[in-house]
Write a structure and sequence with these properties.
Shape: elongated
Strand content: under 5%
Number of strands: 0
Largest sheet: none
Structural class: mainly alpha
Order of helices and strands: HHHHHHH
Distance between the termini: 38 Å
């Protein structure tokens, strides 16, 4: 019945707004889920760094590798937090646009919303649902159809920047500056006494890398 109506009548603004808000909330929940997973991964990685630094089996290079992973996890968390703020901005601007439409009878395309949506569409965690949202916003006339799907180039030199932060991160953790309630335990960690413990550390590192890869995919 709805599809037949759509052939003869323009979409109902209230229905359009409701659908846009549903998609935005869906994306927000998805980001929340990824951010919580990254937080858990960050805690685990910091603990692995402490264990690695105390282990007689591990080399400083292995500890530095863990620090690099920690920095990447933090950066990913920051990107997702920024995306959350962008989503909230989009929701407010979309609601405002529909309010203006109710008064003036028309909607003007928003370059600000288009910029935020274009950025969010490129986020791997949201690509599918953000494309669906962008289609709804195009239908409503809030944004114009997006053509440029190229990926941003802001992470080309990330490896060099990460390497430059490793010493700072290690110094912070070893000095205990990052031991906050619920993040890094205050209880002393026992030093591994046998080779199997080294395998456990390696398995933990591999597990952590796999989880980070899943979150990025």
């Amino acid at each position: 019945m709805e599809s037949i109506k759509a052939m003869f009548w323009k979409p109902d603004p209230a229905t359009q707004l409701r659908k846009c808000n549903q998609l935005i909330r869906k994306n927000t929940r998805e980001l929340d889920r990824h951010i919580k997973s990254l937080k858990t991964l960050e805690i685990k990685t910091r603990n692995l760094i402490i264990q690695s630094s105390k282990s007689k089996h591990n080399t400083p290079a292995q500890t530095r590798m863990l620090a690099v992973e920690l920095i990447r996890i933090r950066r990913q968390s920051t990107r997702l937090a920024t995306s959350q703020a962008q989503l909230q901005s989009v929701m407010m601007q979309v609601s405002e646009a529909f309010s203006v439409r109710k008064i003036e009878g028309s909607i003007k395309a928003s370059t600000s919303v288009m910029k935020d949506v274009n950025s969010l569409v490129r986020l791997p965690e949201l690509t599918g649902t953000m494309r669906e949202l962008s289609m709804e916003l195009v239908k409503a006339g809030i944004i114009e159809e997006m053509i440029d799907d190229s990926l941003p180039n802001g992470e080309i030199d990330e490896d060099e920047e990460v390497e430059g932060e490793v010493d700072k991160v290690l110094n912070e953790i070893m000095a205990g500056k990052m031991q906050r309630t619920g993040e890094v335990p205050n209880v002393p960690l026992t030093e591994p006494e046998s080779e199997p413990d080294q395998l456990t550390d390696d398995a933990g590192l591999e597990d952590m890398r796999q989880r980070l890869a899943i979150l990025k995919s």
